[in-house]
UniProtKB/TrEMBL annotation:
This is LysR family transcriptional regulator. GO terms for cellular component: protein-DNA complex. InterPro entries: LysR_HTH_N, LysR_subst-bd, WH-like_DNA-bd_sf, WH_DNA-bd_sf. Keywords: DNA-binding, Transcription, Transcription regulation. Residues 1-58 form the HTH lysR-type domain. GO terms for molecular function: DNA binding; DNA-binding transcription factor activity. Pfam families: HTH_1 (PF00126), LysR_substrate (PF03466). Belongs to the LysR transcriptional regulatory family. The keyword Cell inner membrane does not apply.
Amino acid sequence: MELRHLRYFVTLAEELHFGRAAERLHIAQPPLSQQIRQLEKELDFELFHRTKRNVQLTAAGQVFLGEVQQIFRQLQQAIEVGQQTSRGEVGKLIIGFVSSAGYNILPILLRNFRGSVPGVSLELHELTTDLQLEWLRQGRMDVGFLRPPVEDNIFSWEIIFQESLILALPETHSLANKSYICLRSLANEPFILFPRILAPGLYDLIISLCQQAGFSPTVTQEAIQMQTIVSLVAAEMGVAIVPASLQNLQRTGVVYKTVQESTPKVSIAMIWRKNETSPTVQKLVEIVRQIAKQL
C-alpha cells in the first residue's frame, strides 16, 4: 500500500464519482478504478458500493476515511515541523551571557528573537566569559554573549555591541558631586575589580586605562559579577571602572560618573562553535546580526 493509493481513495470518497475524482487526480478513470480495487483487495474489505448511477462509501469505508484523513493531517503536520526545523524555527537553545549584557543588548536581542521565532525555547545561564568558553567546548551550551577577545580558533565570534567605560563611586565620595572625574585623582583609591581570568580583555583595558593616567590601581577587593562589584561600591569598599550600561542597574548608595580622559570602547561579542550545524543556532546568529546593525 502506498500513499498515492490512500490519496486516490480520499479523493474518490470526497467526489463519490469516478470521472470527477480521476479528473482531480489527473489520471484516466480506468486506472483509478483499478487502483481502488487493488486497495480493497489488500485491505480485505469493500470501500465503496458501486452502481451504474452512483458510488457510495460502505460503513467500513466511512470509518477508514476518517482514519486516513487523520493520517494525512499528521503527515502534513510532520512536514511542517520538519520544514520549520530545517529553517531553525523550532527547537531549543542554551544561551550563556555575562552579567553586564543583561543591562545593555541582551534584553532587546531576546525580545526580538522570541518575536521572530516563537517556536524556539530558550534556556539562559548567567556565566562569566571563561565559563562560557568552557561550556561551549563541552557542548553544554549553543551560543554565548561574552567579553572579547577570544583566542581559541574552534569558535566563531563577532562584536555586536560597544560602549564606554564609566566610574562607579560611593555616593558619599568626595568627588560624587563632580560631573567629570579625572582618573588620576583616584590614584590612591581602593579599586574593586574582577579576577583577570574571568574576562582578560576587559580587565586589561581597565588596567591600561589607569596606567595611561599615571598609576596602577590598588585592587583591594575582587568580585565575579558586575552586580556584586556595584554592591561593594555602595558599601563604600572602593571605587570601580565599569561598562556604561551598568547605569541601568539602579543601586542605592552608588553614583556613576563620566571619565574625563578618553576611554576605549568595551565590547560584547556573540560566540558559537565553528563546526555548528544546527539551523536553530544559525537562525539566532542571523537575527542577532540584523538587530545589531540597527542599534
